[in-house]
Design a protein that fits this description.
With about 625 residues, the chain is of the alpha+beta class. It is built from 14 helices and 22 strands. The strands form five sheets. Strands 8-9-10-11-19-16-15-14 form an eight-stranded antiparallel beta sheet, with no helix packed on it. Strands 7, 12, 13, 17 and 18 form a five-stranded antiparallel beta sheet that branches. A four-stranded antiparallel beta sheet has the order 3-4-5-6. Strand 10 and strand 11 form a beta hairpin. Helix 2 packs antiparallel against helix 3 and helix 4 packs across helix 6. The N and C termini lie far apart (about 65 Å).
C-alpha cells in the first residue's frame, strides 16, 4: 500500500485551529500514513519491520523488533482512539506479529529481554501498547500467545537494567505483568520509581541518570512513563507517588511550552533528535493525567504545530517513512543505538488520540503559544538554561550553561555537539563535522596546528533573570596539563546574547569564537565581514551576526562555510572571530534573527577597573555583569 502524500490530508480548519489549521482528523491521517508506509517492510508474519538504512549496534534482529514495537505503540493509540472501530486489519496485523514474535520456533521470533540489551526498550513499548489496546487485542489473544508474551516480557524480572530512563522500562513492563497476573517483582517496580526521585533536580527537571544530563528525555521518557505506569497500575499505584509525578509534570509543562518556535519547530538540543515530534508527548500526557497548567487550545496548538512542521519538511517522507535525521536523512543526529526504526519513538506524539474526540483538547479553539505573542526570557536554574524568544520572528533560543551529558567526575567522555555548545535554537542546528569541534556557538583556545579546545565538563555558576554563567577547562591539543579556565557569562535581551568571556590562558594563545550556524538545502548562506564583525545570512533573511565589543581589536571576522554537516540544511555558514595573540577578557554580541528590523550595530561594552562589564544592546538598553567573585 502506498502512503498518501501530504496533499491528501484533510482540509485545514482555521475556524477551530486558527494558527495551524490542523485538527484531530489530521493527526489520524498522519498516523494512518505512517502505519501504511511500514507495510512493504513487514516480514511475512508481521513480527518485524526491516526498514531501509544502516543497522544499529544491536544488529538487524533487534532492529526488526524495534520496528514492530514502536509502530505497535502508534497502532495501539490509533485503535484505542477509535474505540476499536478502525476495522479489523490493523488489530489482526499486530496480533499476528505478537504470536510470531514470541514463538521461539518461528523464523521471525524476537530476541530475548536480557541484561542491558535493546529489547528492554522495545518491551516497554509492547507493554504500553498491549495495555492501551487491551479490550481489542490482548483480551482476544489465544491463551498460549498470552502466556508467551508474558514469558517474553518476564525477561525483565531479576535482570540488570541501565541506570537511566531504562529503569522505567522495567517499571512499565513489570507493571503490565502484574496487571495480567503474571510473575513480576514489586520490589523492582518500586526501586525504579525511587530511582526517578533520586534524579529530580526541581522545577520539573530530571537528569537522565547521574550527572548533568538534561535533554528531551525529560519530556518523552522521565515524565511520560510515570503517567503511562499509573494508567497500567490503576488502584495498585501509590496515590502519593502518582500525585508527586503529576505536580512535577505540571511544573515542567509550564516551561516546556516555551521550547517550540512559532513554526512548530522544537529547540534542537540533545540526543535522539530523530524522534522529532515525540517532543510533544508530555503535552498530551499532561492533559491525559489532568496534570497540565496549559489551556487545552494551547496544548493542541503546540502539538499540532510540531507535527505539521515536520510533515511539511519531509518527515514522513514520500514513502510514508520516518528517516534517520531531522528533516532529510542526516546520520549525525543519531547515536550508536539508532537503527532504521528508531525514529518511530515519535509514535509517543500520538498519545493525544487516547483522549476522546469530544475532549476540550480537540474541541477548544487553538490558543497562541508563548512565542506567538511576546518576547520572553525564562531562566531555568535546574538544567542551567536560559531561554529567550522573540515574537517578531518566532524563534526560541536556549543558552546552555548546565547540560553536558558527561558521566560524573572523575570519568570522562568526548564532547557532543548537541550538548557542548553555548546555545541552541528552534531555527538552527549545531555543526557536526566528523573530526573536529565545529566553530558555532563555541569559544576555543587553538593549538599550534589550529585544533580547537573542546568545552568539556560544564561547571554551572548560576542562572537568574537575564543572565547565566558557567566555566570549563579548555584543554589545548598536546597540552598535558589540566587545561585553562574559561568563564562565560551570557546576558540575553530580545534576539541578542552578549557573552562575557574571562580566560585564564597563557599570553599569546590564539582564541576563536563562533556565532550561530545558519543552513539551507539549496542556496549557501551569504557572508559579510569587517573589523570585529562577521555575518551569515540565509536567502530567506535568517541572519547570524557576531560582533566583537571588547578585546577583539580590529581583527577581521570570517564566515566559515561547510557542506553536509548541519541537520537543517546541506549548505551552512558560521560567523567567526579569531584573535591570534589571545586575550584575558572578551565581550561578544551574538545575534540570531529573521526579523529584518533586528540590528547588530550600536552595541558596546565598557569595563570598569574592578572588572565590572556594562553592556549596551543595539536598542540602547543596558545590563551589568559584576566582576568574578
Amino acid at each position: 500500500m502506498t502512503a498518501p502524500p501530504l496533499t491528501q490530508l484533510p482540509e485545514p480548519d482555521f475556524l477551530l485551529s486558527p494558527l495551524t489549521g490542523w485538527t484531530r482528523a489530521h493527526w489520524e491521517a498522519v498516523a494512518d500514513r505512517l502505519l501504511d508506509g511500514l507495510l512493504p517492510y513487514a516480514t511475512p508474519g508481521f513480527a518485524q519491520y526491516r526498514l531501509p538504512g544502516p543497522p544499529s549496534h544491536s544488529g538487524p534482529w533487534s532492529d526488526g523488533l524495534e520496528g514492530f514495537a514502536r509502530s505497535f505503540l502508534l497502532a495501539a493509540f490509533r485503535i484505542a482512539g477509535s474505540n476499536g472501530r478502525l476495522g479489523p486489519a490493523l488489530i489482526e496485523r499486530y496480533a499476528a506479529g505478537l504470536a510470531a514474535g514470541t514463538d521461539p520456533h518461528h523464523p521471525e521470533h524476537w530476541p530475548p529481554v536480557t541484561d542491558r540489551a535493546q529489547p528492554m526498550v522495545e518491551a516497554a513499548s509492547v507493554a504500553v501498547a498491549l495495555h492501551e489496546s487491551r479490550p481489542w487485542l490482548w483480551d482476544h489473544l489465544d491463551d498460549t500467545v498470552r502466556a508467551r508474551v508474558a514469558d517474553w516480557l518476564g525477561g525483565f524480572v531479576g535482570a540488570d537494567v541501565n541506570d537511566s530512563n531504562w529503569r522505567l522500562f522495567q517499571v512499565i513492563a513489570e507493571e503490565f505483568l502484574a496487571s495480567v497476573g503474571a510473575p513480576h517483582s514489586r520490589a523492582e517496580i518500586d526501586a525504579g520509581l525511587a530511582r526517578l526521585d533520586d534524579w529530580y533536580r526541581g522545577g520539573g527537571w530530571y537528569t537522565d541518570g547521574d550527572g548533568k544530563k538534561f535533554d528531551y528525555y525529560n519530556a518523552w521518557a522521565l515524565h511520560l512513563y510515570p503517567v503511562l505506569w499509573a494508567r497500567i497500575a490503576g488502584p495498585r499505584a501509590d496515590a502519593g507517588t502518582v500525585a508527586r509525578h503529576r505536580v512535577r509534570l505540571s511544573e515542567f509543562l509550564t516551561a516546556h511550552q516555551f521550547f517550540f518556535g512559532s513554526d512548530g519547530a522544537p529547540v534542537h538540543q540533545g540526543r535522539s533528535l530523530t524522534y522529532r515530534f515525540a517532543t510533544t508527548a508530555p503535552l498530551w500526557a499532561g492533559a491525559l493525567a489532568d496534570a497540565t497548567p496549559l489551556p487545552p487550545g494551547r496544548t493542541r496548538r503546540l502539538a499540532s504545530g510540531a507535527l505539521k512542521h515536520f510533515a511539511e519538511r519531509g518527515a514522513p517522507d514520500e514513502r510514508g517513512l520516518l528517516s534517520l535525521g531531522w528533516y532529510r536523512p542526516f546520520l549525525p543526529v543519531t547515536q550508536r543505538y539508532s537503527g532504521p526504526a528508531s525514529p518511530y519513538w515519535a509514535s509517543k506524539a500520538f498519545l493525544g488520540l487516547l483522549l476522546p474526540a469530544e475532549h476540550p483538547v480537540w474541541t477548544a479553539p487553538e490558543e497562541a503559544a508563548p512565542v506567538d505573542t511576546a518576547d520572553t526570557t525564562l531562566a531555568l536554574p535546574a538544567p542551567g538554561w536560559l531561554l529567550h524568544s522573540t515574537a517578531a520572528d518566532g524563534i526560541v533560543r536556549l543558552v546552555n550553561h548546565g547540560s553536558d551529558r558527561l558521566p560524573p567526575a572523575p570519568a570522562t567522555a568526548d564532547d557532543s555537539p548537541h550538548y557542548a555548545r553555548l546555545a541552541y535554537s528552534s531555527a538552527t542546528a549545531p555543526e557536526t563535522p566528523p573530526s573536529a569541534t565545529g566553530p558555532d556557538n563555541h569559544i576555543a583556545l587553538l593549538a599550534p596546528d589550529g585544533t580547537p579546545s573542546p568545552r568539556g565538563r560544564i561547571h554551572p555558576l548560576g542562572t537568574q533573570g537575564r543572565q547565566a554563567a558557567s566555566w570549563h577547562r579548555a584543554r589545548v591539543s598536546g597540552d598535558t596539563g589540566e587545561g585553562h579556565r574559561v568563564e562565560t557569562v551570557s546576558v540575553v535581551h530580545g534576539p541578542w546574547e552578549v557573552r562575557v568571556h574571562r580566560l585564564d590562558a597563557p599570553l599569546g594563545t590564539p582564541v576563536r569564537e563562533g556565532g550561530w550556524a545558519v543552513a539551507d538545502d539549496t542556496v549557501a548562506p551569504m557572508g559579510e565581514t569587517g573589523p570585529a564583525l562577521a555575518v551569515a545570512r540565509r536567502a530567506d533573511g535568517l541572519t547570524s551576526a557576531l560582533v566583537g565589543l571588547y578585546g577583539w581589536g580590529d581583527t577581521e571576522g570570517t564566515v566559515v562555510q561547510d557542506v553536509d554537516v548541519n541537520a537543517v540544511g546541506r549548505c551552512s555558514a558560521t560567523p567567526v572571530l579569531q584573535r591570534s595573540d589571545g586575550a584575558s577578557l572578551l565581550v561578544t554580541l551574538v545575534l540570531l534573527s529573521a526579523d529584518p528590523h533586528a540590528r547588530w550595530t550600536g552595541a558596546s561594552a565598557r569595563v570598569a577597573p574592578d572588572g565590572t562589564v556594562t553592556i549596551r544592546f543595539p536598542d540602547a538598553s543596558t545590563e551589568t555583569v559584576p566582576p568574578p567573585s
